[in-house]
Write a structure and sequence with these properties.
15 helices; Amidase signature (AS) enzymes; globular; 11-stranded mixed β-sheet; about 15% strand
């Protein structure tokens, strides 16, 4: 077996059964990184010495018949925004270019305790604030399907590492699609958990030593090449860590074994904010038909009286409140005159920059309302299938330019978050699966969304869909 082309769970099984050593698996991945990563720039920090030391320790532990964790000896990668003891954590923010982590982030420590071997850290845009990965410190990460196109972001380096078979599993973060759009753009799987299912202590932002202001909508989850891998990772990283009091001790519960027959699936082909591309709509339709043919009850539906524009505005305003909260008045005043801008993101900045507590609480009230709408809607369905992004990976471009979808211009950040914002606003979990391709041969993923705290059931539904789809695709240029 070539360890680089196996999933994390299959590698763990092979190492546990003695068919493969952790040293062999780790060395194979390091060799591939050495050969392939220079082109893609997915990993920006490679800890070869640390990884090999951990792999040798994993093999000794197995030989001594010690208890083995679910990822024992499995090499993985970590998004650069998470602290890994002894390695730099910059979040691609130049003022942090020399910042070295003194200890592991909570989730990194949990993955190590589960036996994972950390190969290194993957590239991010500055402060994880884009869906292209162009770092002012580490440079640009290229898409392995077409190097002229975005790799996604902000977990862009991680999405490419998993897709190009440099790593079977990545730890990422998501406040507006940052584990979901890289999965979509790169043809892999990802999971955005319920808000506060997984704590984020040791993730940047927030900036080291600063007041913690990122208290809403941020989530942390895995990217991988199978739903089984997503589940294994989630069960390792979920639960309170003693640092963030909002993290609730809600049990995950067992994942049900489901079949397509009788599943109730709601489908959204497009929303009124940004019309998806014809290719994306075609993949949604084909996937809905696949589920229906297998026996699922499929219905094109969305919550009654859903106000998509107000929902996006509230997500953006809440996000901007957190960003603007510690900025000086002089810096915030630059945005005050943008209330009439044609760009929804600029209007949101203008609203939030005033830091009005009355408006802030009004946003939270409206958020509560849309959470109730979506939760009530999902009382009647096992999952809600919808696009991740309006189109397949776009050619890399400056943020100031509009995003084109089938020739139609849309404001950049508005278009890039038009489908992912909802899961962050409601806090509901979402799983991305690679479901088809554009006419250019670029992968198109779709996301399944479930009820809050309902990851176990959502994983069960995702496993049903995964079995109906072809295996996780591989970028042709990196198939060997």
């Amino acid at each position: 077996m070539n360890p680089c082309f196996e999933t994390a769970t299959r590698l763990a099984r092979a190492i546990r059964n003695g068919r493969l050593s952790s040293v062999e698996a780790t060395k194979a991945h390091l060799d591939r990184i050495s050969r392939v990563n220079g082109t893609l720039n997915a990993l920006v920090l490679v800890d070869e010495a640390g990884a090999m030391k951990a792999a040798r320790a994993a093999d000794r532990a197995r030989g001594q018949k010690k208890a083995l964790g679910p990822l024992h000896g499995v090499p993985i990668t970590i998004k650069e925004a998470f602290d890994v003891a002894g390695l730099k954590t910059t979040s691609s923010h130049p003022p942090l270019k020399d910042n070295v982590a003194a200890e592991d982030a909570s989730l990194v420590a949990r993955l190590r305790a589960a036996g994972a071997v950390i190969l290194g850290k993957t590239n991010v845009p500055e402060l994880c604030a884009d869906f292209q990965t162009d770092s002012p410190i580490f440079g640009t990460t290229l898409n392995p399907w077409d190097e002229s196109r975005t790799s996604g972001g902000s977990t862009g380096g991680g999405g490419v590492a998993v897709a190009a078979r440099l790593s079977p599993l990545e730890l990422g973060s998501d406040i507006g699609g940052s584990v979901r759009n890289p999965a979509h753009f790169n043809g892999i799987f990802s999971l955005k958990p319920t808000e506060w299912r997984v704590p984020g202590h040791g993730h940047v932002p927030d900036l080291p030593g600063a007041t913690r202001s990122t208290r809403y909508m941020g989530t942390f989850g895995p990217l991988a090449r199978s739903v089984d891998d997503l589940e294994v990772a989630l069960r390792i990283i979920a639960g309170p860590d003693g640092y963030e009091t909002e993290a609730a001790p809600v049990p995950l519960g067992p994942t049900p074994k489901l079949t397509a027959k009788g599943l109730r699936i709601a489908v959204l082909t497009s929303n009124p904010l940004v019309q998806v591309s014809a290719a994306t709509a075609s993949v949604v339709e084909a996937t809905a038909k696949l589920l229906s043919k297998a026996g699922a009850k499929v219905k094109y539906a969305e919550p009654e009286e859903m106000d998509w524009q107000q929902g996006w505005d509230d997500w953006s305003d809440l996000f901007q409140y957190m960003i603007q909260s510690e900025k000086p008045l002089a810096e915030r005043e630059r945005h005050f005159d943008r209330l009439e801008s044609p760009d929804p993101t600029r209007r949101s900045l203008a609203r939030a920059a005033r830091l009005s507590m009355a408006q802030f609480f009004a946003v939270l009230d409206r958020r509560d309302r849309i959470v109730r709408q979506c939760e009530t809607f999902l009382d009647d369905y096992d999952a809600w299938l919808m696009p991740v992004m309006p189109d397949a990976a776009f050619v890399r471009q400056p943020q100031k330019l509009p995003l084109k979808v089938d020739g139609v211009d849309h404001p950049y950040f508005f278009a890039g978050t038009a489908y992912n914002f909802l899961g962050n606003l409601t806090g509901q979990p979402s799983i991305v699966l690679p479901c088809g391709f554009s006419k250019e041969g670029l992968p198109i993923g779709l996301q399944l969304t479930g009820k809050r705290w309902g990851e176990a059931k959502l994983l069960g539904v995702a496993k049903v869909l995964e079995k109906l789809l072809p295996p996780c695709p591989m970028p042709p240029s990196f198939a060997s």
